[in-house]
Amino acid sequence: MTEQELTRDVLIVGAGAAGLTAANELRKAGLSVVVLEARDRVGGRLWTDVIDGAMLEIGGQWVSPDQDALIETIGELGLETFSRYREGDSVYIGPDGVAHRFTGEMFPVAPETEKIIAEITERLDAMVAEIDPDRPWEHPRAAEWDSVSWDAWLRAQTDDDEAVRNLAFATGSAMLTKPTHAFSLLQSLLMAASAGSYSNLVDADFILDKRVVGGLQQVPLRLAERLGEDVLLNQPVRTLEWGDDGVVAHTDSVTVRARHAIIALAPVLYNRISFVPPLPRRQHQLHQHLSMGFVIKVHAVYERPFWREQGLSGTAFSPYELSHEAYDNTNHDDERGTLVGFVSDQNADDLFTLSAEERRERILESLSHYYGPEAKNPIVYYESDWGSEEWTRGAYAASFDMGGLHRYGGDLRTPVGPIRFACSDMAGAGYQHVDGAIRMGRLAAAQIIEQLRQH
């Protein structure tokens, strides 16, 4: 096989939303680009596939009203959105194991617990309001807040265990998908600041507002269409040589020479590339303090959305259940009903010690605690296991270990010679969402365009 040699103004590594956004912005500015993607598809952590005849969004899928960059892109690409089904009662299961129906945002907990949750939420909103999501490490108390775990801080506020579990859940199981003792208060505040407030983060109607007709992977697919043959799949970059005069990237069959490079991958994958010379010490240290969380996204498709007949919205929560949250995930104009449930961190690890059959049984059993016995008999069942994906290694995003954010956060986006970095894992607003990926793609492209103008 003859090796292909390409010369471009800018090389982009990774065909997710960040890389493809950057490539399109650079093209608009008249620069030549090529995107090298390790997988056999574009989209990164966005992936819509048909499984046993059902269209499933295996990766990211929701659009919330604060996600301006994503909403703008969806409109510009001519895509349509639809609202998540949410009519009727939600379900909450407390420590007694009983399913309680409720409406509104507050879980049906004892009045004293409700009061504590409201008070601590207010305290958190005030703290979050002081955090700049692009620079959380600059807060005067950043070092202090980064040295206490999210769990320890909450338990210092109250000895009400149910309140703690419900408060911890939003950034722990639901977002960072790590045990709450494994990341800091500062990391939790950043997660909330990226959504505008802690209240926004715990409001499912806000965070999980709309979906894209045909799936959110349409965004990268359409962005890639515009780039045509400048997106090359199945091309993992093995070596990246860099210096003052630019970069040379080598895959197994392509060599690309470019003046600039954008690495648009999750930081946990940088070590799959041999950098020549090696990245600076600071980068080597930084990347050892970042890791992915882990969550199983469970898709269960039924002949009809039976829960709606019971007056249920499909929205369900419990910090005591294996599936800690679940939603009506029925596709636009689909007669069938789809539920999506989530199992995260330690629970997800534990489930993978079981056989596929046992795993399915345990998860569906948990869903049946919310929706009744009919939930145990889907016509299509699928688990999105991003932890086994070679080019992802977990979900949803990378976050820092204890103390890592204030120590290294400021270096995440620092360019190294002609190399810039962009992905949702380093976003401020829109952190770990497609919105953040688009923002980071735009930022990296704008910086290169500005730099080239000055020369």
Automatic annotation (TrEMBL):
Keywords, alphabetical: Oxidoreductase
Enzyme Commission number: 1.-.-.-
Keyword Oxidoreductase among UniProt keywords: yes
Ranges where the Amine oxidase domain occurs: 18-449
Enzyme class: oxidoreductase
Family, per entry: Belongs to the flavin monoamine oxidase family.
One Pfam family it belongs to: Amino_oxidase
UniProt cofactor(s): FAD
A GO term, aspect molecular function: oxidoreductase activity
Full protein name: NAD(P)/FAD-dependent oxidoreductase
Keyword Oxidoreductase set for record: yes
